[in-house]
Amino acid sequence: xxxGILSSGNLGKDTLEKIILxxxxxxxxxxxxxxxxxxxxxxxxxxYFKGNPRNSIGYNFIKxxxxxxxxxxNYLFLIEKDIIQHSKQLTFNVxxxxxxxxxxxxxxxxxxxxxEKEAGITAHVIDExxxxxxxISQIKIPINKIDTGADxxxxxxxxxxxxxxxxxKKLNSGKLELIKQDEKLATYFGKRTPEDGRINWNWQKxxxxxxxxxxxxxxxxxxxxxxxxxxxIDEIKFSSHGFNFKDENGLILKVNPSIIIKxxxxxxxxxxxxxxxxxxxxxxxx
Length: 286
Hints:
This protein is α/β, with parallel strands linked by helices. It folds into two domains: 2-189, Rossmann fold; 195-273, Methionyl-tRNA Fmet Formyltransferase, Chain A, domain 2 (Roll). It has helices at residues 9-22, 35-43, 57-62, 81-84, 107-113, 149-173, 205-214; strands spanning 2-7, 24-30, 48-50, 69-73, 90-95, 103-104, 118-125, 135-142, 188-189, 222-226, 229-239, 252-254, 259-263, 266-273. The strands form three sheets. The protein has a seven-stranded mixed beta sheet with strand order 3-2-1-4-5-7-8. A five-stranded antiparallel beta sheet has the order 10-11-14-13-12. Strand 1, helix 1 and strand 2 form a beta-alpha-beta unit. The longest helix is centred in the middle third of the chain and has 25 residues, at 149-173. The chain starts with a strand and ends in a 13-residue tail after the last strand.
């Protein structure tokens, strides 16, 4: 069985490493920033293309390479019909949510922000839409109340290869059954950038806590400002410290031994911050 792999990032690299050990990978498409994937291809003498594959650029690289199955793993780019149709048997993607929920980018981060108790990964046929193809298989993954975005992604990492193996087994046994996605249940969330991490202290404390843990280290982090100084916050917990509801949200209620901030429905203690900025009771974060 000849495989073509489309992959990006650490999750793509980790899964590609496992695939290479057991299968014949005839090409890899990746992005220019995924240096570990590029090195892995060079070490294993696998032909690779780096960059945006659209407008037939990627297809022109693979069109003379025979391939049975194409698998997309954490790949940054949407692909066009020429690549989708190039495989002899199947072209599918592994997406980090229980489709049709959380189509789009960084679904595990959005799931934590939205206080979901469960996430998962889905193998689905690639069509020309964004995560809209028929579902092949899914694995559910719990989100614990202290899980960060990195924690959930590490849980994904343990299951990506297993999900892919399951698809291969179904295909080889002739038991591949496709389930059409219910568009009435579909949700879509867009790409996040580091600039999107700013905390709104007018939110309820539960959303702020989820906001922080979803983006904590090694991600860029949730942040706030004091006197134009950026404060990146990696861990936060609920506090029983009292406050006056008339006080502004974001007001610093206490600084020793830890910083406590007033929100609309309770106080929050900053457990971990990345930069030391001198703050005083009565200061306000914004």
